């Protein structure tokens, strides 16, 4: 498990439709995924895909390290804990959905025999200053 502090940008900066305000939850989630991808890259994971979708769901980040595919679920939460921690939100249902979607990816890319693992990156945003705590758990499930 590794921890790394990051600073959240002050401006929204996300894409949105004209005349509509960006969804703050989506903006926070996208920011968290950016932080997670940067953290994983620094840790030696080569990013292959982001937000890969199938009928069964979406995988936030697909990477590769040491010859293994890495399927990463990213969860971003504010430190208030109103809805539980980022790590707590990766429940059995979510794990099942990520596994099913990973199988679709493996078959779609003709890599069914490839070794893989499932990681979780939890990004917790602290206070109004936007400092974040990043926790990476390899082989989380």
Tell me about this structure.
This protein is of the alpha+beta class and 141 residues long. The protein has helices at residues 24-42, 92-108, and strands at 2-7, 46-54, 57-65, 68-78, 116-126, 131-137. The chain has a six-stranded mixed sheet with strand order 1-6-5-4-3-2, sandwiched between helices. A hairpin with a 2-residue loop joins strand 2 (46-54) and strand 3. The protein is globular.
Low-confidence stretches: 2-18
Mean pLDDT across residues: 84
Number of helices: 2
Distance between the termini: 14 Å
Summarize the structure.
By secondary structure, the protein is an alpha+beta fold. The protein contains 2 helices and 6 strands, in the order E-H-E-E-E-H-E-E.
Q: Mind sketching the topology for me?
A:
Layout: E1 2-7, H1 24-42, E2 46-54, E3 57-65, E4 68-78, H2 92-108, E5 116-126, E6 131-137
Parallel strand pairs: 4-5
Antiparallel strand pairs: 1-6, 2-3, 3-4, 5-6
Give me some keywords for this one:
single chain; 2 helices; 6 strands; globular; disordered N terminus
């Amino acid at each position: 498990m590794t921890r790394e502090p990051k600073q959240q940008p002050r401006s929204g900066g996300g894409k949105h439709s004209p005349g509509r305000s960006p969804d703050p939850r989506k903006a926070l989630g996208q920011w968290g995924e950016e932080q997670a991808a940067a953290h994983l890259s620094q840790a030696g994971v080569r990013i292959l895909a982001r937000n890969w979708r199938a009928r069964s769901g979406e995988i936030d980040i697909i990477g590769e390290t040491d010859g293994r595919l890495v399927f990463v679920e990213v969860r971003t939460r504010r430190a208030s804990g109103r809805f539980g921690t980022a790590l707590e939100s990766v429940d059995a249902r979510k794990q099942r959905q990520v596994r099913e979607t990973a199988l679709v990816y493996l078959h779609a890319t003709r890599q069914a025999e490839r070794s893989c693992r499932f990681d979780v990156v939890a990004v917790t945003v602290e206070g109004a200053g936007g400092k974040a705590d990043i926790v990476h758990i390899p082989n989380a499930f």
